[in-house]
Amino acid sequence: MTTIDAGVKTPKKQKISQFRRLLWHVNRTDLGWLTKAALTTLQPGARAKRAALLGQLPSKAEWSEASRNLDRDGYVDVSQLMDRSLAQAVATVADDKVSRLNELSDKQKLGHKSFWVSLLDEDLVNGAFATDHPFVRYALQPAALRIIGDFMRDLPQLSDVLLTLSQPTPDQALSYSQLWHLDHDDKRVCKLFIYLTDVQNTADGPFTFIPAGPSKPFRNTLKSHMSDAQVFAKTGPDAVKEMIAPRLSAFIVNTARCLHMGSRIQSDHSRLLYTATYIQQPRIYPEPPARFRAVGTLTELERTVMRL
Ligand SMILES: O=C(O)CCC(=O)C(=O)O
User: Fold this and answer.
1) Residue pLDDT, tens place only, 251-277
2) Which atom of ligand 1 is closest in space to residue 162's alpha carbon?
3) Which residue in 144, 168, 172, 200 is deepest, having the highest Cβ count within 10 Å?
4) pLDDT value at 237 more than 70
5) Cβ atoms < 10 Å from Cβ of 156
6) Residue 99 CB burial class (10 angstroms; 0-12, 13-18, ≥19)
7) What's the CA-to-centroid distance between 207 and ligand 1, angstroms?
8) Which atom of ligand 1 is nearest to 275's Cα?
């Protein structure tokens, strides 16, 4: 019940939202690991069960090496390690969407990122993807789960899959993910990207990042989106890596550790990108509504990855 007492007592709802805001700030810093540890303790046995499922996945020396690189540098190029036919299936779906761009962008639920067009709305039922969708199948491939899982020492949770078409913004003013930021969805956030168009130079708006080591000074900052000047004052521009790579290149980045930005598309250019986002369970914030709906037979491992 809400208590109203001429400003003497704070209403309960307000207290909860103040508490949430405080927790949100705390979780963005290294103190968030305490939240993570506390939540993990509340689910005794769950982590060991997930680790056992991870152990059932096949392993390869090159996947282990990729996992170590992800741990050390915060990113790894996996173009040669991912299943090419699954990537091709993603590209086929994406190409079809782009060929119907006008039709789909008219239908798009308006978002805040004017330089991003979300093309997958028509594939969702109550906000959820079918588990046999090529975007989901790509994200569930053993190589991806093994590389990210060995880094997390836990079977990852697939949080989302996304297709984004980035286009030039009319006024060229940078906003949101065009500015430097860390992802704070959770303490470990690994994004698996596939370029679905060639990204040949800066004009194509490459995914651009600073590896984990030089990104460290920004770990406990409460600033959310920063300009080049703010970032380079601490790191210098030499730490910056631009992902310049051809269509179907794939890479994994721990976006909670590596400062990053992208989609700074110059006129007459555009960029099509697939993203699968993985976190480590249990999520430090309340679970959002289900993003996947079971279609066909799923293994226990797949169900656990998608929380189905
Ligand atoms: O558009 C880009 O390259 C940046 C994407 C990004 O910031 C993200 O996926 O977290």
Assistant:
1) 999 999 999 999 999 999 999 999 999
2) 9
3) 144
4) yes
5) 27
6) exposed
7) 6
8) 9
